[in-house]
Specification:
single chain, about 350 residues, alpha/beta
Length: about 350
């Protein structure tokens, strides 16, 4: 019996690790465009899932942005049926008219289609084929955009997408390995021309920036960028937990006056909520900046501000009500929300002290 090609083995091990422990009461669904990364992932899942007692299916999304896209989606779906994946869907979506640039609009349409498919089939998880190369590109893009720790943390191996686990089993696998795995399995992946289109920022990073870094600094660049993402992600998760604990703690029994930050501030409990509503300025002021900004971001979302629309600018304006108080007016948040400071508290207008 011929030896298993190392890239095929590596991808199967990664998929097994991601699928182990998932409940068997619904299928896992692989998002597959027909490119090397997602094709290798789908082939590995078709092999591994049944051996773990799991059903595995596939969803391919037709964005309708290129000639022949419907035929290509149909070809991916037929292949999936042949290798035993079930359920299998080819889902057309409309990208035009969605907010943001073409990349963001296509991504939004794709993930909505995947989420809808997961709900239709009661899927226990969605699998996507992002690789170590994709992670490195994500970190570089985040760095150039000033995205901060959350952006530098890159893509997590697992996150919740509206209640459905989204898994990325291949973040420790290179793009070259997925291509070699496809070749070893006799699969012919589709090369998306958008991946080399210089009008897209990620394509420029992929075809121009990363090759320069690899030539100048060596092949360890990919590993180092991916490791940076893992380390920052761990720190970010710890800070997020501290912020969540501060918001979840019981309300404070009293709120200090509205003097400048530092006047009469004493040690306060970890909680930041005031018993009569809003957030205590004094409690916020003594938190480390990294925790305080996360508390304010989470609170803004709690008030109803759209996570997609909230930016660093909004959080900085909220923080100024705490750390740079000069009697300024209310801070405006997405969705028509306003937050003011009064009597030592931050509160949304329409509630709080008069």
């Amino acid at each position: 019996m011929a030896a298993l090609a190392p890239p095929v083995a590596a991808i199967r091990v990664a998929v097994r690790r991601a699928l182990t422990g998932l409940p068997a009461d619904g299928p896992v669904l692989v998002a597959c465009s027909g490119g090397a990364d997602s094709l290798a992932l789908a082939a590995a899942t078709a092999f591994v899932a049944p051996r773990l007692g799991l059903r595995a299916g596939l969803v391919t999304v037709d964005h309708g942005l290129q000639e022949g896209s419907a035929e290509r989606a149909g070809s991916v779906a037929r292949w999936a049926v042949e290798v035993g994946l079930d359920p299998v869907e080819a889902v057309p979506v409309t990208v035009a008219g969605r907010p943001g640039g073409p990349e963001a609009a296509a991504r939004e349409a794709r993930y909505q289609a995947l989420l809808d498919a997961a709900r239709r089939h009661d899927a226990t998880a969605l699998l996507v084929g992002h690789t170590r190369d994709d992670q490195a590109e994500t970190v570089l893009l985040a760095l150039t955009r000033g995205a901060g720790p959350r952006g530098l943390a890159g893509m997590p191996e697992r996150r919740e997408l509206a209640g459905v686990p989204l898994l990325r089993p291949l973040l420790d696998v290179t793009r070259d390995e997925t291509r070699k795995a496809c070749a070893a399995l006799g699969l012919t992946p589709w090369e998306d021309p958008h991946n080399a289109d210089p009008s897209y920022a990620r394509a420029r990073v992929r075809t121009e920036v990363l090759p320069v870094l690899l030539r100048a600094l060596g092949p360890g660049v990919l590993d180092n960028l991916a490791r940076t993402a893992r380390l920052v992600a761990a720190d970010t998760a710890a800070l997020d937990d501290l912020a969540a604990a501060a918001l979840a703690a019981p309300p404070l029994e009293a709120s200090p006056g509205d003097g400048p930050v530092g006047d009469g501030v004493v040690a306060v409990p970890a909680g930041v909520r005031a018993v009569d509503g809003g957030l205590s300025v004094a409690a916020l002021a003594v938190l480390p900046t990294a925790v305080r900004t996360r508390v304010l971001l989470a609170w803004a979302r709690e008030l109803g501000a759209s996570p997609a629309a909230l930016s660093h600018r909004h959080v900085a304006a909220l923080e100024a009500l705490v750390t740079d108080w000069r009697g300024q007016g209310a801070t405006h948040l997405p969705g028509g929300l306003r937050v003011a400071r009064r009597a030592g508290r931050l509160f949304p207008l329409g509630g709080g002290p008069g």
